[in-house]
Amino acid sequence: MTKTYDTLHMGRSSIDLYSNDVGAPFSDINSFAAYVGGSPTNISVGARRLGLKSALLTAIGQDPVGQFIVDFLDKEGVETQFIPTKPEFRTSAVVLGIEPPDKFPLVYYRDNCADINLTIDDVLASPINDCKVFQFAGTNLSKEPSRSATMFAAEMAKKSGAKVVFDVDFRPDQWHDVRAFGVQVRAVLPLVDVVIGTEDEINAAMLDDPNKMSLTHSQVSDTKVAGDSQSNIQQMLQNDLDAVVEKVGSQGAKIHLPTGEIIEAGGFPVDITNILGAGDAFGGGFLYGYVNDWGWYKSARLGNACGAIVVTEHGCANFMPTMEEVLKFVEPYGGLD
C-alpha cells in the first residue's frame, strides 16, 4: 500500500532552553542556548535527517516561539502544513540544566499551551490515513482535548493499515495524579503495535498494584517507579502488540516479542554530555529501520547509535545525526549488524 508519508508524529513541541554552563548548578546558570524540542517533534527531525519523509502534528500559538519551531522544521524538511496555529494558547517552553553525568534538571512551561489542545478536527486535517507509521507520546494523554484526539488518531491510523508506535514518554509533573498515567496508557494499548519505553516508564504504565500506587508525586518526580518490569512487559504484550522495545541506556535496547523471545541490541560507549533527548534520537533511528524492514535488531542498533551520538552533544533535535554521520560513527564498532 503506497502512502505519502513514512511517519506521522503527534504531540508536544517547544522551545528548549539548554544551559550553556555545563556542570553548573541550576541557580548558577548564566545563559541558555535556544533549540527546538518536544518528544514527537524531536523524533520527527531524527527520522527526517536519516531520510524518512516525516510529518508532524503538533500545535503552536500565534507567537514568535511557534514561528521559531516551524521555521526550524521547514529547514529540516519535516512536513509542517498540518500544524495548526491556536491564537488563544501559547507555544510551550522547557528550561534545562546540564550537570553530567547524572543530573539534568528540567522545568516545563506548559500551562495554557497549544499542543495539548490538539483536537479531533486537527487529526482529520492531517494525513492520518496516509502514513506508514503513526507515532505518538504518552504526554498527549495527560489532558483533553489532546487525549481524545490522540486515541482517535490511533484508531484511524490502525484502520488505514498504518503501524501505531507509542513512545511512553512518562513526565510525572504533567499529570494531576501519577496513577492516572497508567489508566490512560492501558486504555490506549489495544490500539498500539509497538511500545517504546524505559524500565521505569513501563512500570509506571502498568502500575495497578494499590500498594505501589500510593507513591506520591514527589517520590516519582525522577520517573523512578518500582515494579517487576518483565511481568509488566508481558502484560503489555497481551494487548496483541508486535513488540515492546525497552531502552536500557548505555546497554542499548531489548526487544520483547509475544513469543517470549528477547532480542538484545547492544549500545555504543561514549562520554556523556547531556542525556536529554537520547531516547528521542533512539526513536528516530529505530523508526527508520522499522519503516525500511530492517528487522528488530538492526533497527534498534541504529536507534542506539543515534542516541549515543546525541548524548555527546549539547541539545537534541538540532543535533540529530544524518545516515552518513551514523555510518561513520559505527564503523569502529563493526557497524550496525
**CATH overall fold name:** UDP-N-acetylmuramoyl-L-alanine:D-glutamate ligase
The average pLDDT is 93
Class derived from helix and strand content? alpha/beta
CATH superfamily: Ribokinase
N-to-C SSE series? EEEHEHEEHEHEHEHHEEEHHH
Residue stretches low in confidence (pLDDT < 50, at least 5 long) are 213-223
Number of domains: 1
> Within the largest sheet, what's the order of strands?
4-1-7-8-9-10-11-12
**Quick one: overall form?**
globular
Quaternary structure classification: single chain
- CATH architecture annotation: 3-Layer(aba) Sandwich
Number of helices: 10
CATH class: Alpha Beta
Q: Calculate the terminal CA-CA distance, rounded to whole Å.
A: 28 Å
Main pleated-sheet profile: 8 strands, mixed
Which key phrases capture this entry?
globular, alpha/beta, 12 strands, 337 residues, four-stranded mixed beta sheet
What do you see in this structure?
With 337 residues, the chain is α/β, with parallel strands linked by helices. It has a single domain (5-333), classed as Ribokinase (UDP-N-acetylmuramoyl-L-alanine:D-glutamate ligase, 3-Layer(aba) Sandwich). It has helices at residues 39-50, 64-76, 120-124, 146-159, 178-188, 199-205, 229-237, 278-291, 296-310, 323-330; strands spanning 5-10, 14-19, 32-37, 54-57, 92-96, 106-109, 131-137, 163-167, 194-198, 243-247, 252-256, 262-266. The chain has an 8-stranded mixed sheet, with helices on both faces. A 4-stranded mixed sheet has the order 3-2-5-6. Strand 7, helix 4 and strand 8 (163-167) form a beta-alpha-beta unit. Helix 1 (39-50) packs across helix 8 (278-291) and helix 8 runs antiparallel to helix 9 (296-310). The longest helix is centred in the last third of the chain and has 15 residues, at 296-310. Residues 213-223 have low confidence and may be disordered.
